Amino acid sequence: MTAALVSVCVLAAGVLLAGELADVLGTVGAWVYLAVPALIFLETTAFAGWLVHGELALLTGGVVIADQGVAALGLMIALVATAAVAGDLVSVTAGRVLGRPFLERRLPRAAAAVDGFFARHGGKALFLGRFTGLFRSTLPFVAGTSGVTVRRIVPYSVASAVIWSATFVTLGYAAAESFDEVGDTVSRVALIVLLVLAVALIARGRRRARRRGDAPATADSRGASAPPGP
Hints:
Elements: H1 2-26, H2 32-45, H3 54-64, H4 70-106, H5 108-129, H6 133-145, H7 150-174, H8 179-225
Helix pairs in contact: 1-3, 1-8, 2-3, 2-4, 3-7, 4-5, 4-6, 4-7, 5-6, 5-7
């Protein structure tokens, strides 16, 4: 139940934040074509997946450019995909230069495990990791520590970057006209769900408290009814 509560909060916050970001980026004009790719590059290279939400940035970019036509959509997709690939390449290189020596000196067994994993599943891991924030911001660096070459990851990086960028920028672009309405609806639904969950949590807490209170009384009654010893 707690996980559901957190999920609803994250969903509502994400939609509302996307609307705010769209308003902010909409005031910077053509700079949006630099701002969104910069966020994507930062997320991949600086382990900033904790701070920068890539999908949110792409959705926001799609919303902002929606009134500029299909050409703007293609340009945004190309720019953010390029930024994502560039971030991967920088992270892999950093992993080879910084991470590999550390593993070999301090964690040789871990180095062997990492090498084996990426030798077998490196391409698939990098491709699928693009679609999860934590893996998107860390897997390229870890892949670099395994000794993976830049040339080897380029096909997987390009394919995943194009699919990921096109999907979320296009979603934002298509939803731009109804974005405010969708945000309001999600906010109302989230509020209702939060209230229901809060009531359920309070009721659950009271039931547990009553059970704890009843337990000593039951034990006392059992002790009183027990026959005295010889």
